Amino acid sequence: MAKIEEKSINFFEQLERVFPIIKGKIQEECTEEEFANLVEIIQFVKTTEYIIEVVIHNIEQYIRCHVAPTFWKKFEYTEDSQRGFELFKSAVDDLYTSLTEFLPILKKLEFLRQNKGETSNIDNSIDIEAQFKLIVRATLLSQLPLCHECIIEHFYKIAFNVFCNSDNSSQDISISEIQCIGCSQEMENCRCQMIVYMFHETNRKLIELELLERLVGNVLTSLIHIRIKNHVIQTCDKTFDVSQLISLENWLETVVMNWLIRVYSGGFSKTVALSDEVRNAINKFKQKLSHFLYETYTNIRIDHLFNIIIEYPESQPAVDDLRVCLERTDKRKVLVKNLQEAIKTRLLHAGVNTPDIVTAYIAAIKALKHLDPTGVLLEAVTEPIKCYLRSREDTVRSVVNSLLDDSPSELADELVKGECLQLDDGSADDETEDWEKWMPDPVDADPAKSTQRKVSDIISTLVNVYGSQDLFVNEYRTLLADRLLSQLNYHTEREIRHLELLKRRFGENQLHYCEVMLKDVYDSKRIDGNIHSDTSYNLQRELFPTSALILSAQFWPPFKEDWKLKLPSIVQNQLNKYVKAFEALKGNRTLCWKPHLGNVSLEIELKDRKLDINVTPVHATIILHFQDKNEWTLQELAEVMHAPATVLRRKIAFWVSQGLLKETSSDVFVLQEESTSKNRLSTDIVEEEETESAMASASDQREEELQVFWSYIVGMLTNLESLPIERIHQMLKMFASQGPGAVECGLPELRQFLDRKVREHQLLLSGSFYRLPKS
């Protein structure tokens, strides 16, 4: 019994000498002979598995109580990046040194495992070193402090800066540069080489301990993301005329990935030094970084997309880049939302002129069509612009003015192309399409608007804002009438050219009235020449030369005739002579003068000056009355001219500004024979600054057209007592909207018209039925 106890005591003493970790020590004290004897005993008593488990358990206890706390103790929070760099390096060096001391113990355990008995249950697939590294990782990460990423970030940020600086070392360094960009030290004390060496050594130790990915993976990812974002912002901010994607991808490959390979290879610059597992992991990480690069670039371009659109086509490279990015990222909804907000904030408000909104809309059409040829983005983004343009009264006039602009403009260039107008009436012929090239709409497309997206022409898109070309044709008629009435001659070459271009767009039937208007100008020139060559007309002494523009009343837009100007008798007599000459020439036809329209060339002689000036008949009538009497009150002039006093005051202000009239007291004006301004020229040809349209506004014309329906509506309600609006609309389409030149009225417009009649007490609304009030 005593011998057995003595052998047991000797066995445990030998075990503690061979594996001092059991007593909490690392330094071994045994010889190779003692270790060989212990192995024989262990194999004899078949306790190999038990001994290995006991030793590994004690190793784990030692690491948990001594190594891990010492390692994490150095991970303190600091804002000093240099101190953070040194703390992390010191912590890794000490950890590596501490764990290296376990190597003799691990070798002995591995020897025991390799020389175990045949009946042992120890798993041969897991070696002792792998178990040791697993214990180290698990123990360290189980005691992870909250601020551990602080000094790790400092370490890799400094190393990345040094690497980027060395990568750009080929660039010229100015003499005045006395500080190293990489390490932020003076050039004489540059520590870049030392930092690179310490960086590679630290990574090599972490790789050897298999701690690199677990310990610094998140910090590396975050740091690289920040660097990518800053680089993209610095490179691409507000630069739209150069494509950036290729240069960004090259930077990612040559700088970021090269640095990442050096991190995971312990200093090597090629992936050959890496294992297959690490190489595959780096390739996957590269794909993620590439996706993040595209996402970051896409977000920046989306933030600047409004400016990109305004600068298009100079910004086409940026649009091309964004088109590629949208194919790789799921950012279409973000693009639509951000761009709509930018448009509403920067474009769709009262401070922006309608022509500027139309110009921006045209740029958006071209840019978004290039970005997305399917038209889905254009449809989604520009819907607020369409609604806002419909709410502005001068939208149609702005578009027509741009179409007829002699200076270079987008719409004028589009008009010259001469493509046919395409309307969103759902009548597109699908049979004309090549079915082999058919592509389905994107998933975010509205299936109800599939036909409308085929419209690619800019003018057609603008016309489709209102859904009808009638408004544009009527506005062109009004604009053409203003141009023809404002010119001082019979020249129509420019207008004929515009009309022919518009006929290719809108069709000849729509513009027939405009052809008649231009023919009236041509006929007026011929008739005026015939009248002046008539001997009977020339026998009567002509006090002043008279020419007339003879209009066909049925084909011209209605005129503004709120009041009728009474001309001086000398002028009226001359016009009557012209009418008689016309009647003699045309037989059963006569002229009805529009005295407020036209141009008058005046030669005004005063005491100290002489003026040659072109004015309207109203202005000419005012100054002619001052030829008879030097002083007039506003009310007297209004009675003589049959004109409203408010209109006369505005017209007299023109002569006051020219220095011919002066207001001596309230509403009393006197002719000034002598000029009070020394700077005024003796001979001056002046045009009135603000030219008013002689034609009725589009809203006034539409109101007059809608009055045509009123007699029909009264007749319906007289016979049928009460009707809903749907029935009224149906009957109007059947009876009142038939035949050539018929006026059409949509249901929303009819509802507004009837509601206005209700407010004027001309109709009664009971439930959803309209009826006439009882008389």
UniProtKB/TrEMBL annotation:
Record has Membrane as a keyword: no
Entries under InterPro entries matching the protein: ANAPC2, ANAPC2_C, Cullin-like_AB, Cullin_homology, Cullin_homology_sf, TPR_ANAPC2, WH-like_DNA-bd_sf, WH_DNA-bd_sf
Ranges where the Cullin family profile domain occurs: 459-656
Gene Ontology cellular component annotations, sorted alphabetically: anaphase-promoting complex
Pfam families named in the record: ANAPC2, Cullin_AB, TPR_ANAPC2
Keyword list, A-Z: Cell cycle, Cell division, Mitosis, Ubl conjugation pathway
UniProt GO MF annotations: ubiquitin protein ligase binding
Gene Ontology annotations of biological process type: cell division; metaphase/anaphase transition of mitotic cell cycle; protein K11-linked ubiquitination; ubiquitin-dependent protein catabolic process
Domain of life: Eukaryota
Family: Belongs to the cullin family.
Protein name: Anaphase-promoting complex subunit 2
Source organism of the structure: Atta colombica
